[in-house]
Amino acid sequence: MTGHLIVISGLPGVGKTSVAEVVAARTGSMHLSIDAVEESILACGLPRGWQVGVAAYEAVGTMADLNLRLGQTVIIDAVNDSEEARQTWRGAATRNESRIEFVHLVISDALEHERRLASRDRGLAHVGEPTWADVRRRRAGYAAWSDAAVEIDTAVQTVDEIADAIISRLDFA
Asked: Known PANTHER family for this protein (predicted)?
């Protein structure tokens, strides 16, 4: 069996989790979110830091492996701002002889992006919500894509429209 790995990436606040949830529900795929795993790790009392982020990527990578091995379609939602992060998913796809596709969500309207961040509350007590300054810092260090990636601007489309675009562009067979 060959699985299918779809990685939905982008800066905080672009809509990764919302879109991944809709795509997974419509396609019967498994959705794995880095933030949810990081929240669980931090809830155990471990201190904040880059190690927790790495642990979350590794844990989600392991869950992806297990499900790709079963022939499942797995949808990851993660910022994926470095080559090291993206290599986690390339490795999972290679180990499991699975297809991999990257989707990069962006917001072309900076004011809309800042507004979304200011008004969101995902209920993550330990991860918290990033500030606009945090996002600007992440943007400055965001690695250019070396892989082909479907890029979608989320500034003026609904979550349903974005999910439709992803489903129509990617092969869910």
From this structure: OS07G0160300 PROTEIN (PTHR37807)
